[in-house]
Structures are given as C-alpha cells and as structure tokens.
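TA notes, week 10

Several of you asked for a full example with nothing omitted. So below is the full record: structure tokens for the whole chain, then the designed sequence directly under it. When grading your own attempts, check the secondary structure regions first.
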C-alpha cells in the first residue's frame, strides 16, 4: 500500500486513523480494522462503536475512498503488462492450468492480439490508415 500523505492540517488524520483506513480497505470490516489499527478496544462491541464513529468522519471517508481507488488502480493491468502477457503466451512461456504448454490456437490468438495492438500504436504514430490483420496457418505445406 502506498504511503499516506496527509499534510493538510484541516485534513490531517491521526496515526491510528490512518492505520484504520488502511486496514479497512484491506478487510472491509470496521471491527477488525479497529483491532488491527491498534485501538485498545476490549471487546468487539467497543471496536464496532469506534469503527462507526470513525466511519462517520468525513476525512476518514475521503481517505478510505482514496486508498480504495489506489487499490483498484493497482489491480488493473497496464497496457505494457497486457503486451508482455500476450508475448509470453505467444512464445509458449506460460503454461495452462494443468501445467501444459499453451495450445497453438491460444498462441495464435495472442499473436493476433499483439498484431492488433502494434498496428494501432503504429497508426497513431505514423498516421497510416487502419488495417485488418488476419494470421492463418497453412497446414498443407
């Protein structure tokens, strides 16, 4: 999880509030987040009360939303990661769920996806018209 920057005084969270926000984003359970954040709640009822109080604070809600957005963004593959994955599949570097090599059909699909994305990138850079690319295998040769 990235460092939390709460430098604005009006929006400053205490260390425990920051910890609560991080834990809440990870587990989505206020009672557990209170315990993990280091609040000295003797029971789950007390932790639940503390959690409810914290979740009503605007600055806590904003921090949780910010951290959730960071978490969601990190979960999405970048274009570069997608290209790397297609390349690994096309090169046969990735096995299937049974530990077997990717099928020829899967490798060809990965090559087609790579070709589409490479041509799209080239079109944007060079200004060439869109092209349709089809990869076929001639088994008769």
């Amino acid at each position: 999880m990235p460092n939390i920057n709460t430098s604005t005084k009006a929006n400053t969270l205490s260390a425990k509030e920051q910890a609560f926000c991080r834990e809440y984003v990870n587990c989505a359970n206020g009672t557990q987040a209170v315990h993990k954040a280091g609040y000295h709640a003797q029971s789950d009822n007390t932790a639940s009360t503390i959690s409810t109080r914290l979740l009503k604070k605007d600055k806590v809600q904003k921090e949780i939303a910010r951290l959730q957005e960071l978490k969601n963004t990190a979960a999405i593959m970048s274009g570069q990661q997608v290209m790397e994955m297609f390349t690994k599949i096309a090169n046969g570097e990735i096995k299937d769920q049974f530990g077997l090599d990717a099928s020829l059909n899967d490798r060809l699909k990965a090559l087609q996806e790579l070709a589409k994305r490479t041509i799209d990138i080239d079109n944007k850079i060079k200004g060439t018209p869109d092209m349709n690319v089809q990869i076929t295998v001639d088994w008769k040769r």
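The longest helix spans residues 104-126. Use that as a sanity check on your answer.
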